[in-house]
Amino acid sequence: MKFFRTLAQWLSGTPAGAAQGDIGLYYYVRVRRSGEVVRIRINPNNDLSLTDDESGYFVRKVAVGTRSFERVELEVTYDKNRRVIDVQVQGGDLVDQAAYEADQAAQAAKER
To answer: Could you tell me which residues are beta bridge partners of residue 38?
Structure first.
């Protein structure tokens, strides 16, 4: 069995023993009504759609808070090189990873 795994890694160009990296793009949004911070993951290889005029890409994701069950919608527009042009959030506000980690730590402290 190890032979086939090594062969598959060799054929795919992945060195044996190398960890597969996460290519996901993470965005963090604070739900307006509850204040909960939600993490949204976008896979740039699968989630992006070509714009109608083919000048770039866009993605629209709807996330639901785990504590409040409120919906928040994230829409991101990218150029042809997949660099962010615009970020729109409905039902919440864009925040950074530190705000997400602080929210997770506060929730963990409440559950103790």
So the answer is: 29
E strands, the chain, where?
A: 25-31, 37-42, 49-50, 56-64, 71-79, 84-90, 92-95
Q: What is the pTM of this model?
A: 0.75
Q: What span, in angstroms and rounded, lies between the C-alpha atoms of 58 and 76?
A: 6
pLDDT tens-place string over residues 48-102: 999 999 999 999 999 998 888 899 999 999 999 999 999 999 999 999 999 999 9
**Residue 25's beta-bridge partner residues?**
42
Spatial CA neighbour of 86 closest among 72, 95, 76: 76
| DSSP β-bridge partners for residue 101 | none
The CB density around residue 111, as the number of other CB atoms within 10 Å, is 6
Are the beta carbons of 68 and 25 closer than 8 angstroms?
Answer: no
10 φ/ψ angles, rounded to the nearest 5 degrees:
-65, -40
